[in-house]
Inverse folding.
């Protein structure tokens, strides 16, 4: 396997910057750049290359499946995580006794909004509180009951990097016959996911963060035995069993997870996503997790030394790739780091430092040095 240092050479942004912002958007690789150019070349040379584009869609589906150790038939390729969530929400049925949807106070807005929008169909939306920055599992136990239809959790919280204990949440939900959804966007590509180990019903995510590519493509995993009972009303011709049937007097959804798709795929972005996924699979998410964990131990030790306060859990098993550090003015702090060509981001009173396999110890040391120089902005 190539070293992480060798992979870094594929990301030109590191020539001039310390890019440590993958929780927001990944660095651009030469491979993803070439993939975008390939799309433009195909447009010049072939024009409308539908056969190739549909093949590419299937290749991307297979790569997402490989990443999650799932089957291709369990994967829908969508246009965003929000589109995945909306497709799922449109398939939920509130005609029975199960009307409760449980989300958490750690949810990304789009995830919680998908459920609140269902109140007009009779959904009752309940939020599990956070405790010490994590999902409060005692509160979850109290709230889940036999009227619960779905429990939705973020794998990694976008605000503080907290990593959910998926098996424990699944066990609590399953005890009451509820379905489980994991919004994996802040984890996928940096935290290993194996659908057999998780045994959840839905997983959503997208491509622009740790999967190295671009806005415009999301994914949705649906557990195989749930697919045929799910009838999304957010649908379209690409969701039909036979896309070419051009039916207008019926809706015959695909027998696999493609039934959660809608219209023309995000063609230019599929080129980029394929390139990004290939690199992630080549590097291997297990190796990424190990590499980033070591960087984050260095970062956490450095933050402690300069008197900063972690907003992420201290325990490495309880956070993802992103580490949140409290700030009195997170926007000013991000701007101060940018003056030194260090690119980070912020949310909710924290600066977010999110390393990936292309980051190294020197990046971490540069961040710590810049934070120390701006100690007045640390919370
Ligand atoms: C955890 C999480 N879920 C969902 C989203 C939204 O994704 P999209 O814009 O693809 O709908 C984000 C975006 O940052 C996120 O971090």
């Amino acid at each position: 396997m190539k070293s992480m240092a060798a992979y870094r050479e594929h990301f030109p942004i590191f020539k001039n910057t310390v890019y440590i912002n993958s929780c927001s958007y990944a660095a651009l690789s030469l491979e993803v750049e070439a993939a975008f150019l390939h799309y433009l070349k195909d447009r010049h040379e072939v024009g409308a290359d539908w056969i190739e584009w549909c093949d590419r869609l299937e290749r991307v589906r297979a790569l997402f499946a490989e990443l999650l150790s799932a089957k291709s038939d369990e994967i829908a390729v969508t246009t965003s995580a929000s589109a995945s969530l909306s497709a799922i929400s449109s398939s939920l049925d509130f005609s029975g006794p199960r009307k409760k949807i449980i989300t958490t106070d750690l949810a990304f807005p789009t995830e919680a909004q998908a459920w609140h929008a269902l109140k007009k169909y009779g959904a009752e939306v309940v939020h599990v509180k956070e405790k010490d920055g994590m999902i409060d599992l005692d509160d979850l136990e109290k709230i889940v009951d036999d009227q619960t239809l779905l429990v939705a959790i973020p794998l990694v919280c976008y605000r503080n990097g907290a990593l959910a204990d998926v098996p424990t949440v699944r066990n609590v939900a399953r005890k009451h016959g509820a379905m489980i959804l994991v919004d994996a966007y802040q984890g996928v590509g940096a935290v290993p996911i194996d659908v057999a180990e998780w045994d959840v019903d839905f997983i959503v995510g997208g491509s622009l963060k740790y999967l190295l590519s671009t806005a415009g493509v999301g994914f949705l995993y649906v557990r195989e035995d749930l697919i045929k009972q799910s009838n999304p009303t957010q649908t379209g011709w690409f969701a039909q069993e036979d896309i070419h049937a051009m039916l207008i007097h019926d809706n015959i959804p695909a027998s696999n997870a493609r039934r959660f798709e809608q219209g023309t795929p995000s063609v230019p972005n599929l080129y980029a996503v394929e390139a990004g996924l290939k690199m992630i699979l080549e590097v291997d998410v297990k190796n990424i997790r190990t590499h980033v964990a070591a960087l984050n131990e260095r970062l956490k030790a450095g933050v402690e030394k300069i008197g900063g306060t972690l907003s992420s859990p201290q325990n490495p098993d309880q956070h993802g790739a992103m580490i949140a550090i409290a700030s009195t003015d997170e926007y000013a702090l991000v701007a101060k780091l940018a003056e030194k060509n260090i690119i980070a981001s912020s949310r909710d009173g924290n600066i977010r430092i999110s390393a990936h396999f292309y980051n190294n110890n020197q990046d971490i040391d540069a961040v710590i040095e810049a934070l120390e120089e701006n100690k007045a902005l640390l919370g």
